[in-house]
Specification:
Low-confidence stretches: none
Structural class: mainly alpha
Strand content: under 5%
Distance between the termini: 91 Å
Number of helices: 6
Mean pLDDT: 75
Amino acid sequence: MGKIATLALAIALALPAPAGAAVRAIVPPGNSEADQYSQTVPGATGPRVPDPTKDSRDGVRAGALSEAAESALRGRGPSGLALATAVAQTTERGAGRAAAPAAAGRPAGEPGLGDAFPILLLATALAALAFALAKRRGLVTR
């Protein structure tokens, strides 16, 4: 019985693992010790892991590649197909879809300081000028 179990174990270990058994590591955000050992791609919502299950057509469906760009990359051979696949795997959901127009110089979805920023900048400059003048006249001892 021991020889049969050993033979079965040897055969099981010799067979390649199925593709579905690929391990997908999930690293919790803010864990820099583990994050340094996994590939992440920066994005608008923070770093994320590329999706290895996507192919070049998924880039067209997501809107990251046009039909013409995808077919032109496919026509370039294996390196073009690899590039189109990399684009698809690293694209965020809805990346190529049209969004509401953002204010000039401001990313969509971020409120920013709006009109308060120039006012704050001017107030800071005036305060610095007033302090410099007061120091020069001897009104400020420190």
